[in-house]
Amino acid sequence: MKPFQLIPEPDNKIPMENYMKNNFIFLGVKSPSRKEQSKDLIKQSRYMTSKERFILVKDLYSKTEREYQYIAIDICQVNASKMNYDELIAYLPLIEEKAWWDSVDAWRKVFGDYIKKHPDEKEKVFELFFKHSNFWMRRISIILQLTEKEKTDKTMLTKEILFDLETDEFFIQKAIGWSLRQYSKVNPKWVKSFVIEHNLSALAEREALKQIRKGEVVI
What is the average pLDDT value for the chain, to the nearest integer? Predict the structure, then answer.
C-alpha cells in the first residue's frame, strides 16, 4: 500500500500548535479536512486483517505530526466494534505515547465503543486503566462510561473517583467533574447526593453540578 501523506495547510499550523500548548508539531490540517483526506485510508482499514491494521496504526502513530496520531485513533474507532479483546489491548501501549488530553480522550471513544458492543467485558476493560500509575490512563477509567447513560455502572464510577479524589492533577479533577456531569443528565439526584457526601475539589464539584445548577436537569 502506498504510504499515506496528508497535504499540509500551513495557515493553520501555528494556531493549532499554540492551542495544544506547543506540545506537538502540526501540519495545520483541521478535523474536517483530515477526515476528508483520510477517508479512503479509513475505508481500506475496514477490510484489513487485525495484524495489517495494527501495523498501519503503529506506523501512523510513530509520525511526528499530531494529525497522524488522530488518524490512527480514527482507524481504531471505526473498527472497535469488530475487535476482540486481545486485538483491543494490543493498542494499550500507544495511549501512553505522546499522551495529552486530545489523544487520550479520543482513545476513550475507542474503548467506549468496545464496551457498548461487549457490555459483559466492561469491568475487564475498566480494570486495564483503574489504579494505573499513569494518570492519563486513569483519566480513561474515569470517563470510560461517558456515553453509557442509564447503563452507567455507579459502583465502577464511584470506585475510580474515590481513588483519585485527592489527586492534584487538573486533567484528573476535570475528568471527575465531567463524568459526574454526564451522568447527572440521567440521574441528577444520585450525582447531587454524591457531591454532598464526598469532598470533591472545587473544579470537580463545579463541573459535576453544571447541568444541575443551570436547571437543565430536573431532580
Answer: 96
